[in-house]
Amino acid sequence: MPRWLPVLLFASVMTVLPLIPGIPPFWIVLLDNIGLAALVAMGLVLLTGVGGLTSFGQAAFCGFGAYTTAYITTVYGLSPWLTLPASLVVAGIAAVLLGLMTVRLSGHYLPLGTIAWGIALYYLFSKLDFLGRNDGISRVPPLSIGPIDMYDPYSIYFVIWAMVLISAVLTMNLLDSRTGRAIRALRRGHVAAEAFGVQTARAKLLVFIYAAVLAGLSGWLYAHFQRNVNPTPFGPQAGIEYLFIAVVGGAGYVWGGVLGAAIVIILKEVLQGYLPLLFGGQGQLEIIVFGILLVVLLQLAPGGVWPWLANLVPLKFRRTATGKAGGLPARERVGSSAAPLLKVERARKQFGGVVAVNDVSFEVNAAEIVALIGPNGAGKSTTFNLITGILTTTGGRIEVHGKPVDNTPPQEVVKLGIARTFQHVKLVPDMTVLENVAIGAHLRGRSGAITSMLRFDRGDEAKLLAEATRQIERVGLGAEIDQLAGSLSLGQQRIVEIARALCADPELLLLDEPAAGLRHLEKQRLAALLRQLKAGSMSVLLVEHDMGFVMDLADRIVVLDFGTRIAEGTPDAIKTNPDVIKAYLGALA
Ligand SMILES: Nc1ncnc2c1ncn2[C@@H]1O[C@H](COP(=O)(O)OP(=O)(O)OP(=O)(O)O)[C@@H](O)[C@H]1O
Fold it and tell me: With a 6 A CB cut-off, is 387 part of the ligand 1 pocket?
């Protein structure tokens, strides 16, 4: 089934719905409110469900959108259509200012930060004289098209739902793109994404602004639907409710936002309508029952109702590669070819009193496989993290092609042709193998958010996916290309990481325990692949505990113990080195 068919079906249903003869006007009002909430929830899907940035403060951005249009249309008499960009820009600017302060926060501090500014803005709206303080701004003009003034809930219904549909399509397009993959990596795999050039701070700010602009759009519609604006609907309680809507619907799914809005708003209406009749209107019982029902719903469908429903439908819309697109341009080569490819010179890393890497020196030359071995805790992974910019050095120097890279951010190191895998696999489990691997080619694509939303990125995207497909087939995982990465065995996930690293078009591949979890035949295939890469003049720096694998493959071996280099040489020399036997090989025997 084509991807656009469900959208078309949904659009047709929503168009026909208000035209059904005898439909009560109250239902239309309800649908209008659902549409308005769905816009905010859709932003939260991107921000919280996909990007992992929990916000309780989205209602405040609705307030920016609503107050902007209410003020300009009532004071200056401008058409609401002219104030739409102003509402979106004001919400967007507010998001930039608040986002710069907030998205840097991590853990519990981020949601707490959003609650703090949610409350602060609510009080600001209610204290400003020019915004009418607690009374707000009334007599906001309705939207109009030609001679039609949209005073009634029927006419504005079409505008609200057209906006919901357009926003849903733009959001889905964004998620299904180079920028979308970067956003989707924020929640589960941002360390790896940064190692392939993704500017995660920028991606966080982008989703923050996007969610705020959608909330601003909802606020703009609200102002012309209700025709008066006051602080109450933009307070912290509304902010909590929007987050609730996204979670109930399925915070990781665009349509989850729409479904969540429908469930929560209809449930509230039904309970408010019927429970007082049952219990004589005492003690606001509907709020308590509403809370209990939602908790039960989340128990039944913890990931939200949308994915639960989607699982009942056998149709899947996973992204497959075309394989026909042209190749990506090769990565631009940097640095001098006279210097060694990698030179680690007295590199040092201390964690408090622990010297994890103790003045370690070694080199890796072009088309060479070097292994870094040593007992657990010897400092091998820390050395990888120093080379790739994930950790900063305490001392010493690291050069790539003669260019110093110590204390360079990972996004810059990968540009020099260094790509890596991780000891603890860092894939995004709910993305397919293809999508995960395509993150490796992030720097070789160009399309940004707007281009992707408007679907002008298809040429660029086809090339990225074709490259990812090529690398997946190269490592022998072609049959798994459309599987979710999290569903693969750990050994296969390690191989997916190698394909992702190859997508960066590296000169030096850093592999952290690539053979762990692989069966004998798979190890042989991996060794053959690494030899083939070497034949293609790629270099490999390898951390591995399987000594048979290392001794067969490596040209040179560097041995670390307690952070110190204790030996370096060919596999034959290392095998018989008494210090190495004492510190490591003897322990393995
Ligand atoms: N972030 C950190 N904070 C404090 N100590 C750390 C940190 N990372 C590593 N270490 C310590 O540094 C030392 C080297 O760790 P590292 O992970 O580099 O060893 P390794 O050789 O990769 O070990 P393994 O083979 O078990 O992965 C260990 O003593 C470890 O506990």
Answer: no
